[in-house]
């Protein structure tokens, strides 16, 4: 007999199977047998066995659809659809996998896996062992406590009493009573109509248990609730018998047989080789077995199979019963793709028109909640006969029904640019978590190598041409809002969005693991989504009178500049017309250096005007001033007033999460990242961003973060010492490069060192440095050579990085993000040089972007832990702006600096400058 168990692992095998099947794209072994669930189950079990310290392990399966519960209540689980066709042949293979791992498996006719788990858990506790139930199934939470815990491997989360209370509002020993009251549509457990989890928890908390509640139901003050409980008392008692797990199943396989045994790696490898699982076999040391067919497709090596052709069947949901069925299906699957249709693109102004859901490839629905278009003109199911137009569900009812699903922590909600959907639903009072985003999955995997819009990704990865918005809503002046679209067209378009999102998720999520990008997605991108949603929702207050005064000032100065410019030209012309300006500069005034574009017009871009101004010509210098004022007036002082949200009285910028090549966020509508900070006019605009009364703005800015990253990634010992000493880095550089003491240094020499320090980050050339400093190319080259001579590590880093880019097509930031470098092998020297500079800059700028994202993700929880009310309002490159209560200033500053400075561990310290002000200009 085996020794007494210390730690027993009971694996919910059925839960693992469905999680693996729905979590991976369709894939087949060489003979055509589907194996995605087999592969997913194998990888999960292998990791589990490698990670656990358990000395007893077993996998528990469901033996069939019927159990003793069907004798109690024949309708129990009666509405569940049959297992997916592609999953059926995998059940036996998965049991073979368990046998190949030399792990016991148990199943019994007439009982569910949960009953067997409950029985073995009880036996193990009686023998003094700790029990871990590997599952996230809420029905097993009634077993938690007294040495029994659950492990959700998908979220790497241990479930104990506090997590159970968070889910049900009661301790584990009262979960059965709560479930008996609220029922379970997934399993067709009736419960008491109108009683949800929150109400059930409140009632059990007040009366102690279900029997006492039902006995005293007549005492309940709310008439409707009282009568409902009186009428459905027997249904509640029946429901309790359905949800209560049996802990005394007459099992025939003893607990002692679960003692952990080593598996034969060769036996396992040979079995997996037959399935075509090359990567796992390689980890096990190889195999001599042949696959199930002569040749393994290339896709099998990474298990990212090309998506199969899918036939779509979309349903228009117009009844509560139909919606409840979809909700139950999503709950069973544990994953649902979701998309919202609205009346506009601004999530703070648009109205929700409908919600679409998808639970399997080709299977999706659309739930309209605001359509004024009249009945559908065609079918409700694609390719089905035409049907009469339905009456849509009331908006409040549909949203109330969807709310628990959206908030259910056990169901993953997948969207494409899900930030927008979260904002739209938030306006309707709904929260959504946890979430995945296919746009961000694509961004993490492929960066700047292509766009990440749904239409482009569907064509690229699924070979699918999506229905375009213009085909549904029209374009130009004839475009209509989505609430005016006929329901049949709305169904086809909206349901397809959710369907394609689900299919993309299956394909891209599998790549994430195969390409080792899980950490970047899970630690830098996915957790940032709710932070950005909250930040955009808060917005920032602007001083409207101050902006209007600035607009007037800029307008007056522009008018005076126009007078001056036309006087210098000797005639009137439109200063804002590049064509007329070109004629003035190069024909009327005959200035040298003019070049015509392909259209035959004179080039008058900023570089041309700056060159002319540098030569001492006054007119182009004044045109540059005029253009700067014109841009600031049009982009900010005029536009910001128009962009104040009438409901919040604040400006709400939008952050694009998947646009830049380096991982930086991009701000638009309005763009608050491009306000010039070094000009007087730009600083005046920043002064117009203000705090609410009783608050102040905090600006927290990383000091020289990119130079610190250069010192770190290139391993430059001289710079690292200077940063650790808190020295003036530019003065130290000048001293070391030019051989002069820091004390009494010529400020011009320090400026040159500063130009080199920052220029190196961007791969500056001798010509570029000469232009910037106004020196000869030869002198600039001597400066750069001296720099490399003093810091040879930087040249080695640059060469190493360019080689990495040439070999891989991308470079990595210190945190694993891929920064793609298209053109690195281009035959055109200029294009190649540009790509090389981007490669050198990629780990630096991308690393800085990663660090501030890490800080943003950690900041809300850190503030909440200190009971601070500060709100994150803006992120501008290396700077965060928060609104802080006056009474909490110093405490908040300390927390913000601590979080930002500890966001990454580098070879040099991170330093944050943090200041307060009534406006942004004073705070920075």
What's the arrangement of secondary structure elements?
Elements: E1 7-12, H1 13-23, H2 36-51, E2 56-60, H3 68-72, H4 90-100, E3 105-106, H5 113-126, E4 130-134, E5 148-152, E6 157-159, H6 161-168, H7 175-182, H8 197-207, H9 210-215, H10 223-231, H11 233-243, H12 265-275, H13 278-284, E7 313-316, H14 320-333, E8 335-342, E9 352-360, E10 363-368, H15 395-407, E11 412-415, H16 418-427, E12 435-437, H17 438-446, H18 454-462, H19 469-473, H20 487-514, H21 518-525, H22 528-538, E13 540-542, H23 544-569, H24 578-588, H25 606-614, H26 618-642, E14 650-651, E15 654-656, E16 666-668, H27 680-686, E17 689-690, E18 695-702, H28 705-714, H29 717-725, H30 729-738, H31 747-761, H32 766-773, H33 777-790, H34 792-808, E19 810-812, E20 818-820, H35 829-865, E21 871-876, E22 879-885, H36 889-901, E23 912-917, H37 920-923
Parallel strand pairs: 1-2, 1-4, 2-3, 4-5, 7-10, 8-11, 11-12
Antiparallel strand pairs: 5-6, 8-9, 9-10, 13-14, 13-17, 15-16, 18-22, 18-23, 19-20, 21-22
Helix pairs in contact: 1-2, 2-4, 7-8, 7-11, 12-13, 14-15, 16-22, 17-20, 18-20, 23-26, 25-26, 28-34, 28-35, 30-31, 30-33, 32-33, 33-34, 35-36
């Amino acid at each position: 007999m085996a020794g007494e168990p210390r730690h027993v692992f009971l694996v919910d095998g059925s839960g693992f199977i469905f999680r693996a099947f729905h979590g991976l794209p369709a894939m087949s072994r060489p003979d055509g047998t589907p194996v995605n669930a087999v592969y997913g189950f194998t990888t999960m079990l292998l990791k589990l066995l490698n990670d656990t310290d358990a000395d007893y392990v077993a996998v528990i399966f469901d033996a069939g659809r019927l159990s003793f519960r069907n004798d109690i209540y024949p309708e129990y689980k009666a509405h569940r659809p049959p297992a997916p066709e592609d999953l059926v042949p995998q059940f036996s293979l998965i049991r073979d996998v368990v046998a190949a791992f030399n792990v016991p498996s148990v199943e019994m006719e007439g009982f569910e896996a949960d009953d067997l788990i409950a029985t073995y858990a009880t036996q193990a506790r009686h023998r003094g062992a700790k029990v871990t139930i590997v599952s996230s199934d809420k029905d097993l939470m009634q077993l938690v406590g007294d040495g029994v815990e659950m492990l959700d491997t998908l979220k790497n989360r241990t479930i104990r009493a506090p997590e159970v209370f968070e889910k049900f509002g009661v301790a584990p020993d009262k979960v059965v009573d709560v479930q008996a009251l609220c029922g379970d549509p997934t399993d067709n457990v009736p419960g008491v109509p109108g009683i949800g989890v929150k109400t059930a928890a409140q009632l059990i908390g007040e009366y102690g248990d279900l029997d006492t509640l039902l006995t005293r139901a007549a005492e309940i003050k709310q008439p409707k609730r009282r009568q409902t409980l009186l009428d459905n008392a027997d249904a509640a008692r029946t429901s309790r018998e359905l949800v209560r797990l049996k802990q005394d199943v007459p099992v025939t396989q003893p607990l002692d047989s679960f003692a952990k045994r080593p598996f034969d790696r060769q036996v396992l490898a040979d079995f997996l080789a037959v399935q075509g699982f090359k990567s796992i076999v390689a980890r096990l040391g190889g195999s001599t077995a042949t696959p199930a067919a002569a040749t393994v497709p290339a896709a099998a090596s990474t298990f990212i199979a090309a998506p199969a052709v899918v036939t779509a069947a979309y349903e228009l949901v117009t009844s509560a019963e139909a919606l409840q069925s979809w909700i139950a299906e999503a709950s069973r699957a544990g994953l649902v793709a979701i998309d919202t249709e609205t009346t506009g693109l601004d999530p703070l102004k648009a109205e929700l028109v409908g919600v679409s859901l998808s639970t399997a490839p080709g299977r999706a629905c659309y739930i309209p909640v605001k359509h004024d278009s009249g009945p559908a003109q065609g079918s409700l199911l694609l390719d089905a006969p035409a049907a009469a137009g339905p009456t849509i569900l009331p908006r409040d009812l549909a949203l109330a029904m969807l709310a628990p699903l959206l908030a259910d922590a056990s169901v993953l909600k997948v969207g494409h640019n899900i930030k927008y959907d979260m904002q739209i639903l938030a306006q309707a009072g709904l929260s959504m978590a946890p979430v995945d985003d296919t746009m961000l999955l694509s961004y993490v995997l492929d960066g700047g190598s292509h766009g990440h819009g749904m239409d482009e990704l569907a064509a690229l990865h699924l070979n699918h041409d999506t229905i375009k918005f213009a085909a549904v809503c029209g374009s130009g002046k004839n475009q209509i809002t989505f609430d005016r679209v006929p329901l049949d067209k709305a169904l086809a378009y909206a349901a397809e969005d959710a369907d394609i999102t689900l299919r993309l998720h299956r394909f891209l999520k599998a790549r994430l693991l195969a390409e080792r990008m899980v950490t970047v997605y899970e630690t830098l991108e996915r957790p940032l989504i709710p932070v950005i949603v909250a930040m955009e929702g808060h917005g920032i207050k602007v001083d409207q009178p101050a902006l209007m005064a600035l607009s007037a000032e800029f307008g007056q100065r522009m008018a005076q500049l126009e007078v001056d410019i036309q006087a210098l030209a000797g005639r009137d012309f439109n200063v804002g017309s590049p064509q007329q300006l070109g004629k003035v500069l190069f024909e009327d005034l005959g200035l040298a250096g003019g070049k015509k574009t392909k259209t035959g017009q004179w080039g008058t871009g900023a570089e041309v005007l700056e060159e002319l101004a540098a030569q001492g010509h006054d007119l182009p210098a004044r045109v540059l001033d005029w253009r700067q004022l014109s841009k600031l007036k049009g982009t900010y002082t005029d536009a910001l007033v128009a962009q104040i949200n009438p409901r919040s009285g604040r400006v709400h910028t939008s952050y694009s999460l998947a646009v830049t090549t380096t991982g930086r966020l991009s701000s638009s509508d309005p763009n608050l990242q491009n306000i010039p900070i070094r000009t007087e006019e730009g600083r005046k605009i920043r002064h117009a961003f203000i705090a609410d009364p009783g608050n102040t703005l905090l600006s927290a800015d990383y000091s020289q973060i990119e130079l610190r990253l250069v010192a770190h990634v290139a391993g430059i010992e001289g710079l690292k010492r200077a940063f650790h000493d808190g020295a003036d880095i530019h003065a130290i550089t000048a001293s070391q490069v030019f051989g002069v003491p820091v004390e009494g240094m010529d400020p011009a020499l320090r400026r040159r060192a500063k130009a080199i320090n920052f220029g190196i980050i961007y791969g500056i050339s001798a010509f570029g440095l000469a232009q910037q400093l106004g020196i000869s190319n030869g002198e600039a080259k001597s400066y750069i050579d001296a720099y490399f001579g003093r810091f040879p590590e930087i040249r080695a880093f640059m060469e190493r990085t360019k080689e990495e880019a040439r070999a891989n097509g991308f470079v990595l930031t210190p945190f694993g993000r891929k920064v793609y470098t298209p053109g690195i092998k281009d035959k055109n020297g200029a294009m190649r040089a540009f790509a090389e500079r981007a490669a050198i800059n990629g780990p630096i700028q991308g690393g800085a972007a990663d660090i501030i994202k890490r800080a943003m993700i950690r900041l809300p929880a850190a503030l909440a832990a200190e009971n601070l009310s500060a709100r994150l309002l803006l992120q501008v490159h290396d700077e965060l702006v928060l609104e802080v209560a006056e009474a909490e200033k110093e405490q908040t500053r300390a927390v913000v600096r601590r979080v930002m400075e500890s966001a990454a561990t580098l070879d040099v310290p991170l330093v944050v400058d943090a200041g307060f002000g009534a406006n942004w200009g004073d705070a920075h």
